[in-house]
Specification:
The chain has about 180 residues and is an alpha+beta fold. The radius of gyration is 17 Å and the shape is globular. Strands 1-7-6-5-4-3-2 form a seven-stranded antiparallel sheet, covered by helices on one side. It is built from three helices and seven strands.
Length: about 180
């Protein structure tokens, strides 16, 4: 195996990492909820994520509502398929990650290759949005992602992974804020 891949004896040490990001949005909780569950195309491109080939979110759509609905969070490399496991509108949305796209596009002169080292070393397991009504016109949104790293040393790579996940959260929360505040 490659030196940064977790070997068999280290797999016992794998754990879920949580990244939580928050944002205060100047909009009623009901409006924010709508834009958390599904959101339109995010128009701007995150320069650093794009530069390094890291996948980033474009939009989200949902099929159905309530527990059992399927949310599709579409990234530049494909869609995360997220079965809803907890639906407490307009306060809590939890989901598992049943399927996820590649974490990045490999930079190479041959374009259409997909190297083995892009598969399975970062796996998003589940996510959650918590919404808290601060007053009639203000909402606190907390987004969390739980992921697992299968690269060694995980203590080293988890800092970079946390920063990337936080950048992705910030992109989504900024867009949700823009959509929610614009509607007022």
């Amino acid at each position: 195996t490659l030196p940064f891949v977790v070997s068999a004896f280290e797999k016992d040490d794998l754990r879920l990492h949580e990244v939580r990001s928050t944002r205060v949005i100047a909009a009623p909780i009901e409006k924010v909820w709508e834009n958390v569950v599904h959101f339109s195309e995010i128009p701007d491109e995150p320069i650093l994520l794009k530069y390094f080939g890291i996948a980033y979110p474009l939009r989200a759509r949902i099929e159905g509502s309530g527990v059992g609905a399927i949310r599709h969070c579409e990234f530049t490399t494909g869609a995360f398929v997220e079965p809803i496991t907890r639906w407490e509108a307009p306060y809590r949305l939890e989901f598992d990650v049943a399927q996820h796209p590649p974490t990045m596009d490999e930079f190479n002169p041959f374009h259409k290759i997909h190297p083995r080292h892009l598969n399975g070393y970062f796996e998003s397991q589940r996510g959650q949005f918590l919404l808290t009504r601060l007053d009639d016109k203000t909402t606190l949104v907390s987004g969390s992602t739980w992921y697992q790293l299968k690269i060694y040393p995980a203590w080293y790579w988890s800092n970079l992974a946390d920063l990337i996940v936080h950048a992705i959260h910030s992109r989504v929360l900024e867009h949700v804020a823009m959509l929610s505040e614009k509607a007022l």
